[in-house]
Write a structure and sequence with these properties.
Layout lengths: L2 H22 L2 H18 L4 H28 L15 E6 L7 E4 L2 E7 L11 E8 L2 E4 L1
Parallel strand pairs: 3-5
Antiparallel strand pairs: 1-2, 1-4, 2-3, 4-5
Helix pairs in contact: 1-2, 2-3
GO cellular component, one term: plasma membrane
Pfam families: NfeD
Protein name: NfeD-like C-terminal domain-containing protein
């Protein structure tokens, strides 16, 4: 196998590593593919098989050692933009029908919601502003 064949084989290997990257969404395969591309560059420069393999190993391990912890840190972080019912917690609403421990209606984020008071002994009258503390199903829990 001559040098030109070596760099082609490394590129074929990089492409082959891209397939499981797409299928499994495991970024480690992408890092190995980049290592194979680095080895292809080394092979294209005419350096020997040992140097090619070293380039592959060094680049792949370096990428996994650096990128993987960063990616793991980002996956542990909660999203900064609250959506869905998470976005409604802490919002203010206006009472449309008396709200007490058993039920009522509020206008929350432009929509009419069923609601009940967190404190079952407390009641909120029409026109009062309340704060949403939780959403249980389709019912807003207010204070």
């Amino acid at each position: 196998m001559n040098d030109i064949d070596a760099w082609v084989w490394w590129l074929v290997g990089a492409a082959a590593l891209g397939i499981p990257l797409v299928v499994t969404a495991m970024p480690e395969f992408g890092m190995l593919a980049v290592g194979a591309v680095a080895a292809a560059v080394v092979a294209a420069l005419g350096l020997g098989a040992v140097v090619q393999v070293l380039a592959f190993v060094i680049v792949s391990v370096a990428l996994i050692a650096v990128v993987r912890p960063i990616a793991a840190r980002h996956t542990r972080q909660s999203p900064r933009l609250a959506t869905g019912i998470d976005a409604l917690r802490g919002k203010q609403a206006v009472v449309l029908e008396r709200v007490d421990g058993t039920g009522g209606r509020i206008k929350l984020a432009g929509e009419v919601w069923s609601a009940r008071a967190l404190d079952t002994d407390r009641a909120y009258e029409v026109g009062q502003e309340v704060d949403v503390v939780e959403i249980e199903g389709a019912t807003a829990i207010v204070i």
